[in-house]
Amino acid sequence: MTPGTLWLVSPSYFDAEAYRRLQERVLATLDAQPRPVAERVRFVVADDTGGLDLELAALARERDDTILVTPPFNLGHQRALVFALRNLSQRMRGGDLVVTLDADGEDRPEDLPRLLAPLLDSAEHGREIVVAQRTQRRETLPFKGLYLVFLTIFRGLTGTTMRSGNFAAYSGRTGRTILRHPYFDLCYSSTLVALDLPVKYIPCPRGERYAGRSRMGYGPLVMHGFRMLTPFTDRIAVRSLIAFSGAFALSLALALAAIAIPAVSDEAIPGWAAAGAMAMMVVSLLSVANALILFAVFSQSRGISLSNLEDDAHGNP
To answer: Radius of gyration of the chain from Cα atoms?
Structure first.
């Protein structure tokens, strides 16, 4: 069954020229397919400048197939994408298809057919979420080094390898079901993986920006990496508790050994060893406890501060 509408949703921050080219490439790619992907195609772009990008507003007025969604202020590309999706959710039909992708061309339109194929081939476009798995990145050497460090930390904290971004596809039925989950207030891309829904990964290389330049510096990238962890708070808490319990048990064993060995033998335990064992217990307790508290406070405050933002935008209670 051919889907009614294919919704293509993107966040944009002064990327009107790149977005214009993205639209052209998307339409050219879809027109080249042997069968129609959907009855109609609609582009939805979130203006993350808060309405300051006049060029993007002009583009939306020129095109009948483009819907401009304007958050009240800059939210960052992840939260702006969620803002647009939630505003769109009332217009989604169960048989529609939703694709989220960046506005600058780094999510390649040429990969759209492969991303949509699993949904088009399934009955009623099922509950599966199809995500682009990054196979190649055209980045500087320092960025690749930091990215490798991030992947290692992410894997250690969550037990999950994160190699995906915003490029994903799912049915309108799935979108209407999951988009109100509060984890999406924290990070869109990692929430798709954290919710334990059926996910299918499609290998896709990272494309090149069509125009302009990226405004994402190392500082915002670090914050983005931290926010990607927040939907996995429960997993991080469990793994941290296991690590703490192991460290605490080891420290306790060393401390008991420092007390018991002199009592049952003539062997003397150096004073520094006993002091070190006790210090290890205290440090392991304080460090892990503080890390968990800070992580929980950050994730909760981030979600609470932006909760009900879409309702407020529509004047609803």
So the answer is: 24
